[in-house]
Amino acid sequence: MEHHSPAPLNRRPSTASTASGWTARTLAGMGLSTEHVTLGDTFVNTENDVRSIPLELSNVPKQRSESEQLGQVHPTQDGQAAPSPQSQSSKSITLVKIWWLEMASFFLVIVMIAALVGTIRPYQNQPLPQWPYSLSINTIVSFYSEVMRAAMIMVLGECLSQLKWSWFTKPRPLDHMEHYDNASRGPWGSVKLLWAIRLSAILPSLGGIMMILSLLLVPLTQQIVQFNSCEIPDKTLNASIPKTNFASTGTSLHVGAGLNTIYPIVQDTMNSAVYESELKQTPFTCPTGNCTFDGVYHSAGWCSTCEDISDQIEISSKPGQLNFTLPSSNLTATAGIRTFVMAQGNTGIQSILGWSVNGTQQRLSNTSWGIRGYGAAECTIDPCIRSYNSTVKGGRLTETLLSTSKNWTKNEYWLNSIDVSCLKATEIQALHNAGYDFDPEKTAWLPYNLSVRASEAFNPSVINATNTTIRPECIYQTYRGQILSLNTYLKTMFAGEVAFAPSVLGGPAILQSIFQEGNVTYSTIDDTFNRVAQALTIYARGEGTNITGLVYQTETCVSVRWGWLTYPLALVLGTMIFFLWTIDHTRRNVGSRQDYKSSPLALLFHRLGDAGSEGPVSNIENSGELQKKAKEMKVVFQSTNDVWRFTEVEHACTSGVNKPSV
Hints:
The protein is of the alpha+beta class. It contains 18 helices and 25 strands.
């Protein structure tokens, strides 16, 4: 082939010297010598011009064949196979050496995921943590996600940068070099890369997509944590609600007159219950207005029972009047004169309404009794054990009556019952030994006998006059004196008759309130007695002890929505697949085995030109070696004959160099 020497360039001596120095150092670093190097038939003198340097290979093989470039081995003089220089270089660059920084970055991503979960999980459904310097959990989550995204982008960017070298092992548009470089820097560059390559290669497309999706990592990760108002127990405060193991009516015992009377305050409590439209509320203590009393608790008290006995009424007539009579007590109501009557019956307080017979006279009211014209009910108030659960919200108590029990053992004086769920195993065995046959799993309340001579009448512990003892908190009781006093007062409280006619209403105030101007019916009477029993129970509970509950403070709590963790986990999985796939691809592809990645030095050490005309080039495959070489060289970006280029110099500033204007 005929070689033509280029026309000599007019250069300043300083420039020629600079070029000569650059050539000598560069070729020496590449294993070349400037002493006897030939370029075809052209010889140049190093003392005059950089073009006059005779080129000769020094201690390195000449242009390698294609098989050598692909890392194939060749026989040595002794007949043994020896690896080619390419193969030797590739062996010296291990995967860990090439990818250690990316591996560390990916490990950091995993650490941030673990730290994120480990930080927010302990505070799930708990109040906001009080951390130093007023750090919020949102700040910490944001920090984790930002570090995670930065480490993830580092892995994705370096992998995309490394892929560009294998991309150009086939003819590609040169501007793809810029697209790959931009894609390694962020989402917008990745969008342009995907558009440039049209998804024609799966691996770089995956990397570009992952880079774009990383843009949403931080905001979607912060969606994991949400805040809401919650109630947290405050152990420094106490809540309480009264209960009692003894059903009292506030009996005032006397000798002689007024033997079975009850305290005036209890009388007032019962009377006011008739006039109130709602049940009286149990007093409680709840400092914050939000409290709970866990589980079911019991209290001795009073219960009302009513029965509709309208079918027992006997109707008779006399000239000008209708009579409605209850045979059991001879209680009689007469339209107009005694329209509504209440009195003590044989087993309880009886009420009777008499007005007409099925509308033969003017309808009294639109109630069931008013339409029919008559009706009767019988009610009692008896001691019972009431079981509740309750909560306090916004300062308002909601106490729910779950059940009542009248499972007493009755003797001449005491009414007694044991809460079986309260008993210990030794107490259950003691009861069995005392002759009580019961199954603790099926029995809720156990009647028991107590001698009238019990030494602790209001806190009994003796069973069957033996030495067997039961803890007082498990025993519920009352005595007959309480019941007699209550019934004595009820007979006077609910006694009398109401006369009713248009524009005429007369009789005791309590009975007028119950009559409700003719709107009385069985349900209203039942409700009246229920309110009286509730008021009486509240009084009895006030004479007992308190049970304690939990006090809740309103706080801002952390709500964790783990479903949002799916997005960062999917990104981590996608990044891992892309990373491992890139490692395998670069290991298999000869054109990307070099550890160049995003280093711009690789482009400076590898010139652009036609095949065979590039001139001296580097065969350094490690980015570390590229940096080492670059540290040993000083270059200047200067114009020589209107051509701008990097030129190696002894000193950064050289006389005669045309400095660019800024």
